[in-house]
Amino acid sequence: MCELFVMSSRLPATVTYSLEEFARHGGGTGPHSDGWGIAYYEDRDASIIRDLDPAATSPLVRCVADRGLRSGTVISHIRHATQGAIALRNTQPFAREVGGRIHLFAHNGDLEQIAAAHDLELGVDRPIGETDSEVAFCTLLARVRPLWNNGPEAPSLEKRTAVVADFARTLRPFGPANFIYFDGDVLFLHGHRRKHDNEEEPRTPGLNLLCRSCAVDGSDFRAEGLEITGDNQHVVLAASVPLTDEPWQPFAEGEIVVVRAGEIIGRHG
Q: Which helix H or strand E contains 159, and what residues bound it?
């Protein structure tokens, strides 16, 4: 299966060690050698870097780390291809414009037969590639677009959360449905099930969560995977596999965690 990583912070931060360790899972310590991608969100848009080389050996991973790109929201995905060719069009994170801002999506799992499901509507968005993950994203967009019809202002969080929760319930019967969805305002993190250590059957946890805070200059974050600047920093990390020796919190099956600017603002399921 693929692996996911996301960071949300109160102030813009730079991913350092966590990205490197995560990349080593991509064809290094793990089997996920079919490409990778990372998105840095900024002001309703995103810098998205995707590569077909294994993340563990990709020169672009070192380039990203050396450039020290900064963002309050960083989403990364390393791929183990189960559906679709090894091609850029099938490499995540996926992005689409909704309500005058870029929305981002990354998924870990194998959603069998989702493309043939007659009760899932794609709406105006169509997959560019052949993955189950992109079909899932397009069906989610069909549900969220009506909420954004009144302009660039974000719809109520209650309505958005209800749509995402209903979407997650619809997705789970197709297979492991761990996903990260960012609508330019909040992150929706959904933990389901995944395969662990070459096990045949997926099980919980599908995602793991770590929250950090620092009231000084944040320099001690470097040892834990982040370079943080600014006072009163708060950081939320989620990953398929814990990336540090700290006690990461496993998601319950079907749990949705809602995050804004490094703070958990809701938990459901």
A: helix 157-171
Q: Which residues pair with 237 in a beta bridge?
A: 7, 210
C-alpha 184/C-alpha 167 separation (Å) is: 18
What are the backbone angles phi and psi of residue 43, rounded to the nearest 5°?
Answer: 55, 60
Domains of the chain, start order: 3-268 (3.60.20.10)
pLDDT value of position 68 = 83
Q: Which residues contact 255 (CB under 8 A, 6 or more apart)?
A: 190, 191, 267, 268, 269
Q: Model confidence over 122-143: pLDDT tens digits?
A: 889 999 999 999 999 999 999 9
Length of the chain, in residues: 269
pTM for this prediction:
0.93
Please identify which of the residues 2, 63, 138, 214 carries the catalytic annotation: 2
2 included as an active-site residue: yes
